[in-house]
Design brief:
alpha/beta, Rossmann fold, about 50% helix, globular, binds iron/sulfur cluster
Amino acid sequence: MNKIAFFDSSHDLPEEIISAAGYIPYKILGDVHASNEPADQYLQNFFCPAAKSFFTEALHKSGDWSGIVVAQGCNTTNRHFDVWKMHIKTPFLYWFNAPVKNDEIALGFMKKEIKAFIDALESFFKVKIGDDKIRESIRVANEIKKLLQKLSAMRSTKDIPNRDYLQAILVTLQQNRMDAVASLEQISREWSARPAFPSGKKKALLTGSDVSYPEWMDTLDKCDVRVVRDDLSIGERYFSGLIPESGDPIESLARYYLNIPRPATKPGLRGRIEFLKSILRTTPIDGIVSQNLKFCEPFAYDSVSVNNALKEDGHKLIHFEREFTPVTDQQIVTRLTAFTETL
Ligand code: SF4
């Protein structure tokens, strides 16, 4: 089964359509261990390093993919698309214009965009994407979301290192989704047998830019911070809700994607704060770790308002900007260690 890769700065692309077309939806996540020097030749310095890494991966691997889809997310996705058009060799490069709002007009827009995406795939790859195939794809997607919800909930009660949680999600985003179900079932069995939550660790909510590599999650563990809730796209935003399985599948997908918790890449700060507050009401947390990746402007802009709103409710919070590197940042270790001592 061939892969169609996608650059999605949040969870905006209805990847179920790619599965329904008979292709593996492969989320481009870059490689923090590889130099971004190839991307640096084409991109300005103000682009975030994660997106540069995605571009580097596409330069190297596009020959292995049947096509690439870029979903409208932050300004980086929008600006990158034009650069990718010029420099990435791929037979199929498609722009999915995910709406920024989530009102009724946006719903109609999203449905049209999904239909246009289906038409483009059908026409280019000579496939038929019927409602039955989309429904099956939605069913599998929901199976994955339920399994991830179960795994996520175990973080509060079991000894689940931050790295393990991230890897469970990463394994889902780049393989055949039916194989992902089997992988997650296996992980669920294994985690159920884990010991109880370690007494020396502090329970934290993680918010801000997406974390796409496990070394950074290790840094949190080194500082005795255990992430038990989050609102990241490579995290709870991906499985916070299920896609309706009855009715018109295109309408179901459109409603689902417009109603998941909003990232900073889309307007609607109040909704983001409310989602974080709902997490804090339902799960006992010792503190909040807010971070943004260098040059990740959407989350940098949002962080002051979001963090102030959470602090006003009496929560302890630390915020910092981080680099895109697998190397441990000792300044962050020092600050996080001091923070955990206050919890
Ligand atoms: S890290 Fe931030 S700026 Fe970079 S692609 Fe993701 S949302 Fe956009």
